[in-house]
Automatic annotation (TrEMBL):
UniProt xrefs under Pfam families: CENP-B_N, HTH_Tnp_Tc5
Entry's localization field: Nucleus
Protein name: HTH CENPB-type domain-containing protein
Keyword Metal-binding tagged: no
GO cellular component, one term: nucleus
Species of provenance: Trichonephila clavata
PROSITE patterns assigned: HTH_CENPB (PS51253)
High-level lineage: Eukaryota, Metazoa, Ecdysozoa, Arthropoda, Chelicerata
Length: 144
């Protein structure tokens, strides 16, 4: 007997939910709107809404620490220490370029590591931030 071919499952695409949308969802939940109503309105699974509710502290901290709320690619909250490090690094890079000093990728990556270590030692961080590891990789640099 020949084997029957199984029908291929339709490949579902992962939906990225911006931080702006997540904040709106959290605000709706605070106003006692039902999860089912929110999910129907936004065309999301109820489990996605529950997951967002569970990560409320991280999401709100990420927005407070400076993540661009409107960024389309910012779907996940990032560690606060990373946000602070990148803000400080941006200021440093702008200062170096206004002084017309030479700068390259390796110098920026080394400075990012120094700023990260300094922030980790000197600030009061949450448990997530103190355990966060940072490697100034090429991938990180390209996204920065």
């Amino acid at each position: 007997m020949p084997k029957e071919k199984k029908e291929a499952r339709p490949i579902s695409k992962r939906n990225f939910i911006s931080l702006e949308t997540k904040i709106k969802i959290l605000d709706q939940l605070k106003n006692n709107e039902r999860i089912a109503d929110i999910s129907r309105h936004l065309n999301l699974n109820e489990s996605s809404i529950r997951t967002i509710r569970q990560a409320e502290d991280k999401i709100r901290d990420s927005v407070v620490s400076g993540s661009s709320v409107l960024a389309k690619v910012t779907a996940r909250p990032r560690a606060t220490i990373m946000e602070k490090m990148e803000q400080a690094l941006t200021v440093w890079v702008e200062d170096i370029t206004t002084k017309r000093l030479p700068i390259d990728k390796n110098i920026i990556k080394q400075s990012a590591l120094k700023i990260f270590d300094c922030l980790k030692e000197n600030s009061e961080l949450s448990a997530d931030d103190t355990s966060h590891k940072f490697v100034a990789s090429n991938g990180w640099f390209e996204k920065f």
